[in-house]
Amino acid sequence: MLGDHRTDKDRQLDDVRVDYQDTALTTDHGIRIDDTDNSLRPGERGPTLMEDFHFREKLTHFDHERIPERVVHARGSAAHGYFEPYDAALAPFTRAQFLTTPGLRTPVFVRFSTVVGSRGSADTVRDVRGFAVKFYTAQGNFDLVGNNIPVFFIQDGIKFPDIVHAAKPEPHNEIPQASTAHDTLWDFVRLQPESTHMMMWVMSDRALPRSYRMMQGFGVHTFRLVNAEGRGTFVKFHWKPKLGIHSLVWDETQKIAGKDPDFNRRDLWEAIVTGNFPEWELGVQLVAEEDEHSFDFDLLDATKIIPEELVPVQPVGRLVLDRNPDNFFAETEQVAFHLGNVVPGIDFTNDPLLQSRLFSYLDTQLIRLGGPNFPQIPINRPLAEVRNHHRDGYHQMIIPRGRASYHPNSTGGGCPAVGGPDAYTHFQERVDGHKIRKRSASFADHYSQATLFWNSMSSWERAHIVAAFRFELGRVVDPDIREGVVRNLSNVDHELASLVAAGIGVAPPAEPAVPNHGLSSPALSQAHAPVRSVATRKIAILVADGADGGQVKAVQAALGSMGALCDVLAPRGGAVRDLDDKPVPVNHALITMASVLYDAVLVPGGQESARALSMDGEAVHYVAEAFKHAKAIGVLGEGALLLETARLGPGPHPGVVTGTGEDVKGFAKAFGAAVAAHRHHGRAMDGVPA
Ligand code: HDD
Hints:
The protein is of the alpha/beta class. It has helices at about 10-15, 55-65, 95-100, 160-165, 185-190, 195-200, 250-260, 265-275, 330-335, 350-370, 450-455, 460-475, 480-490, 495-505, 550-560, 605-615, 615-630, 640-645, 665-675, and strands at about 75-85, 105-115, 130-135, 140-145, 215-220, 225, 230-240, 280-290, 315-325, 345, 540, 565-570, 575, 585, 590, 600-605, 630-635, 655-660. The strands form 3 sheets. Strands 1, 2, 3, 4, 5, 6, 7, 8, 9 and 10 form a 10-stranded antiparallel sheet that branches. Helix 15 links the parallel strand 11 (about 540) and strand 12 (about 565-570). Helix 12 (about 460-475) crosses helix 14. The protein starts with 7 loop residues before the first helix and ends in a 14-residue tail after the last helix. The mean pLDDT is about 95. Bound molecules: CIS-heme D hydroxychlorin gamma-spirolactone. CIS-heme D hydroxychlorin gamma-spirolactone binds near residues 73, 113 and 356.
C-alpha cells in the first residue's frame, strides 16, 4: 500500500518495476514460449535434449538464484519511508541539509534484523536487533547503521570476527541456531570483559522486542557533525519509537519462534498495510569538541553510553515508514549499507570500532552482491547524480559515453569536475602518534556502566536479567566457563552474580575488589518508558456457540475506536452462533493461533460459550498463558468461568479486568488501560503451569 505521498526514491524505482498482468511468458531474451511444463525430448519417453534452450535457461537461472546471506544480520525485513527534520536547530552544527531543512522529506529505506541467526531463523530469538537506515539525500546516500542497543561487545573491530565466531553456531556441528546459549560465546565473554556491559543489555528484555515499531535505535558510535566553518561537534544518534519501548517475555519468545517465526516481520508488514505507519523520533546528544575529555569514560569507546542525565537527547526530526517493499530479494536482500556512506556535514571519529566498520561493509558487499557495481542495484542507487571514472566490472548497468575515463583529462573537457560547494570535505583533525597496537588507558574500565545499567533496572527487569543469565549459562556445558562468567559478573554487582550462581550450580562468588558505585540512570529502564497506548495492540476475543454477541460487538467497537486490533477466535473457523442464534464471524480457529501472538485475551459472557471454552484445553491455555506472560486479561459475565478453570490463584490480579456485562463501555475503558500498560509483572504467576 502506498503512503499519502510518493518520494523521489519511489519514483526512481518506477523505472525498474515490472508487472506481469496481461503479459506472455518469454525467455530471458524475449522469445515467447509455448510450453514450460514439458522439456523437449525425442518421443514421449525419451531423454531431454540439449537444444532445449528454455529448459536450460530456466534451470540455470534457478540453480544460481541464491547469493551468500549476510555474514551477520542475515535475517531481516525492511520498509520504505521518509525522514523530516522538525526545524533548523542543527544548522549551527552541520552542513547536512537533510537534517537542517525544515519540512524537507528525505526518502529512506530501513532494514531491521537479528544478528546471529541465519536467513531462515526465527524473529523472536534473544539477540541484538539491527536498525539500519539509508537516507537518499540530495547530497548522496547517508547510511546510519545502528542497533537497538546503544553499546557494543568489543572496542576494536579487529575482534569482530572473534565475537561473531563465538556467538554463531559452533563450528563442528552448527548448533545452536540463532542462540548465544552455548559454550563458545560465554567463553569469549568471560575472557573479554569489555563485552560485559553489552551482555547486560543482551540479557535484558531489550533483546526481546515486542515489535520493531516498539524498540529504540542507536548509532552507537560517537560521530561528528561538521558545520560550514568546519567546526566539529561530537554526536550520538538515537531513534525513539512513537509507540514506546516494549518487550516480550522469554518463555513467550521461544513459543512464538515455533508458532510464528515471522512474528516481527509480519508485524512490520501488517502495520504498514493497515496504515498504522511506524514512526520514530530522531534525537541527538551533542558534545562540544572542547568537552571531549570531560567524562569518566572515553567518547571513542563503543562499549559506553553517554547517560542521558549527563547530556540530554535533543529531538530533531521524525522517521515514518509507510511503504512495504515490492520484492523481498530485490530490495531487502540486495540493500547494501555502509558506514562510509556519509554526506557533507557528517564525519567519523577515531573510535576504533567505527574505523574498522569503514572497511568491512564495503568489502562484504563485494562478495555478497558479486562485484563493484552493487551501488547500481536499484535499491542502492542514490537520488544524487553519480558521475565518476569507475568503469567496467561485472554487471555494469550504465553505458558511459566518451573517451575520458581518467582524471585529469582534456578529452572529456576535464569532467566530471572535482569540487564545488556541495563537495565532501573531511574534518581536519590533527593526529599524531607512534604506530602501536595498544588500547588507550581510557578504555580500561569495563564494569562501571554495566553496574549503572543494573542499578537502573526495576525489580522485574532485574528478575528477567537474572533468569536470562541462568538460562544461557545453564546451557553452557563447561563448569569453568560458568564460573568465569559469574566471577566477571561479580565486578558488576555482587548480588547479581550471587543470584546467577545460585541458579546454575556455581559457588557464590567472592566480594569484588570494587563495590557497586550506587549510581543509576533512570532513562535506561523500560519501566520508565512514558508511552502507554492501545494503538495496534492485538486482542484475542475467545468465543464458542452461545456467546453474548452483543458484548462481542460492543467491546470490538470500543477497543477498535482506541486503535486496538481485535480478532475473534473460536474452537472452529467460520462463525459461531450467539445467544440469539445469530452468527458471530470468527477470524481464526483457536488452534491456528496462540495467546503468544496477542497482547491480551478477552472472554465475553454467554453461559453456553463460557462452559464450552472452559472444557476446551486450547481455550483455557490461552488464558493461563496470557496470565503467565503478564498480559491483560478481560472477562465479562460468565466468561469469568475461564479464570477459575485456568487456576490462576485467588485474585484480584493486576491487569485482570472483570465486568458484569452491563457497562461494556466502562469495562472496555478499564481493559484498554490494562492493555496499554503492556504487561503486569507484579502478578504472582510462578505457580501457573503454562
Ligand atoms: Fe555490523 C551488518 C550494525 C559492528 C561488520 N551491522 C550490520 C547490519 C547492522 C549492523 C544493522 C545489517 C545491515 C543490513 O541490514 O544490511 N554492526 C552494527 C553495529 C555495530 C556493528 C551497530 C557496532 C556499533 N559490524 C560491526 C563491526 C564490523 C561489522 C565492528 C566489522 C569490523 N556488519 C558488518 C558486516 C555486515 C554488517 C560484516 C554484514 C552484512 C553487511 O555488513 O552488509 O560488514
